[in-house]
Amino acid sequence: METFLVIVNIALILALIFVLIRMQQKHVSFSKRVFAGLGLGVLLGVYLQFAFGTDSSITAQTTDWYNIAGRGYVRLLMMIVIPLIMVSIIQSIINLEKTSQLGKISLWIIGVLVGTTAIAALVGIGSSFLFDLNASEIEAGQAEESRGLYLEERLTDVQDMSTPQKILEFIPANPFLDMTGDRATSTIAVVIFSAIIGIAVLGVRRKQPEHAEMFIKVVNSFYAVVMRIVTLVLRLTPIGILGLMAVTVAKTDIAGILELGKFVLASYVALGVMFIIHLILIAIFGLNPFTYLRKVLPVLSFAFTSRSSAGTIPLNISAQKNSLGVEEGVANMSASFGATIGQNGCAGIYPAMLAVMIAPSVGIDPLSPGFLIQLVLIVAISSFGVAGVGGGATFAALIVLSSMNLPVALAGLLISVEPLIDMGRTALNVNGAMTSGTLTSRVMKTLNLEHFNDKKAVEKDIAV
C-alpha cells in the first residue's frame, strides 16, 4: 500500500509537470509559468503534509523523487555557473574601451553590496527592538542543543582566520581547483582569474593582434555555446520551482513556526523593509522601481524556493542582462560577488538580530550606542569574510557573535524555523546583487534604459 501511494504521488507531480510543459508550448509567458510552478508546488506540498505528515515514510520517499525535479534543476544551474562566469567576464573585459573601467565597476559593486549590508544590520536591529526579541524566552529542545554544540565546535574554525586572511582566500592559487567549486570563495576566485585573462588579452591585442584575434574567436565561440546551454536550462525553471516548493512545504515544521512565530514575523518584517530600501535606491538613481520589481520577480521566486544564492547566479545574470538592460560585464560581476560578499539577508539582518536577542542574556545592554556601532561595523566588515569560512548565515552569525564576545550556542535555538527564514534571506541576498548591478551600470552609463523600460524584455532570451 505504501509503495502504491508513493507511485500515486509521483504521478501527481508528473501530471503537473505536463501542465507546465503545455503552458510553455502554448507560449504562456515565462513569469506566469514560474508563478504557476510556485503555486502548484505549494498545493502539492500542502497535500503531502496533511495527507501523510512531515515525518512519514511515504513523505520521505515521495520527496526523494520530487528532488529529481527540484534539486536536479539546482544541480544543472550549478553546472553552468563556472563556465558562464568565465566566458562572460573574459568577453566583457575584451570589449572594454579602458581597463580602468574594470576597477570602477568593481568598487561600485562591492561598495553597494557592503553599504546595503550595513543598512540591513540597522534594519535587523530595529526589527529586534520593535518585536522585543529576547533569546532567554526561547526554550531549547534536543535538536537545538545539538545545533548549539555544533556551532561551538565550528567557532574554532572561524577564529583561526583573521579578516585579511579571509580576504586572501579570494585570490586563486589553483584556478583549476576553483573551477570545481572546491572552496567557499571559488566563485570570486574564478571571477578574478577570468578578469586577469581578459586584461592579458587586451595587452596581447596591442602587441600581437593576430594572436589576440584568434583567442577572441575561440572565446566568442565558447560564449555562444555556453549561452545556449544557459537558455536551455533556464527554460526548466518552472519545473524546478515546482519540485523545490513541494518538498519545502511538505517538510515544513508548522509546530516550530508557531512556537517561534514572533522571530519569524520579525525576520520577514526586516526582510520586507530591506526590499523596500532596495527599491528606494533604484528610484533615487532615476529608475522605475515597479518596472525593476516586475522583471526580477521570477528570479526572486527561484531564490526563495531554492535557498541557493550560487545556484541563482545564471538566472540573476540573465535577468540583469536581458530584462534590466545591465551591461554584461557588470551583470556577471555583481551576480558573482553578490553570491559571497555583502549578503544583505545572511550577513546583514540575521547576525544583527541574533546579537541584539542574545546580548541581554549575558548582561549587555543592546541599546548602548557603543554596542550598536560596534555591531554594525563588524557586520559590514565580516560580510567580506563570510565566504572565506564557508559562507551562509550560520557562519556570518558565528563571525559576528564571536567578535562581539557573545555565546554562539544560542544561535542553535532557531533551527526549527531556519529553512523558512532562509528562503526570505536568500531572496534578499539575490535582490541585493541585482540592485548593485543595476545601480553600477546606471552610474557607469552603460545601462540600456530602453531595454529597462521595455515591458516585453523580461524573457526575450528564454523564449519557447
Automatic annotation (TrEMBL):
Cite a single GO MF annotation. Answer: L-cystine transmembrane transporter activity
Gene Ontology cellular component annotations, sorted alphabetically: plasma membrane
Which positions, given as ranges, span the membrane? 6-22, 34-52, 72-94, 106-131, 184-204, 225-245, 265-287, 371-389, 395-415
Keywords for this protein: Amino-acid transport, Membrane, Transmembrane, Transmembrane helix, Transport
List the InterPro entries hit by this protein, alphabetically: Na-dicarboxylate_symporter, Na:dicarbo_symporter_sf
Give the location in the cell.
Membrane
Primary location class: membrane
The membrane topology of this protein is: Multi-pass membrane protein
**Which Gene3D superfamilies does its entry note?**
Sodium:dicarboxylate symporter
- Matching PANTHER family: L-CYSTINE TRANSPORTER TCYP, PROTON/GLUTAMATE-ASPARTATE SYMPORTER
Similarity section: Belongs to the dicarboxylate/amino acid:cation symporter (DAACS) (TC 2.A.23) family.
What protein name does the entry list? Answer: L-cystine uptake protein TcyP
Please give the organism: Halobacillus litoralis
